[in-house]
Design goal:
By secondary structure, the protein is mainly beta. It contains one helix and nine strands, in the order E-E-E-E-E-E-H-E-E-E. The strands form two sheets. Strands 1, 2, 5, 8 and 9 form a five-stranded mixed β-sheet that branches. Strands 4-3-6-7 form a four-stranded antiparallel β-sheet. It catalyses: 5-hydroxyisourate + H2O = 5-hydroxy-2-oxo-4-ureido-2,5-dihydro-1H-imidazole-5-carboxylate + H(+). Its EC number is 3.5.2.17.
Length: 108
Amino acid sequence: MTGLSTHVLDAVSGSPARGVSISLRDSTGTELAAGLTDDDGRIGQVNTASLAPGTYHLVFDTGRWFDTHGIAGFYPEIDICFAVDDPTRHYHVPVLLSPYSYTTYRGS
């Protein structure tokens, strides 16, 4: 499997963050794909095609999600910049989200 997936977990409640708007952009800022996290806080395939080697941005609209849930948050947007080096592999970028911090890592 190739492409990109993501998962957002509300670290305060320990629940999936449903309905987070996410955009995949290339290094020029051009949007390549977009979607909303599902009931499990996931987007299983942000894009279905292989990602060519290069730099990409996965942008999470956390401000809208915080507003929708009545949460005062510090980060209105999370922009995770990452590098693709192998177009044959699948990339997974998870996020643990709270109002005043977030964590991400290269998932599997």
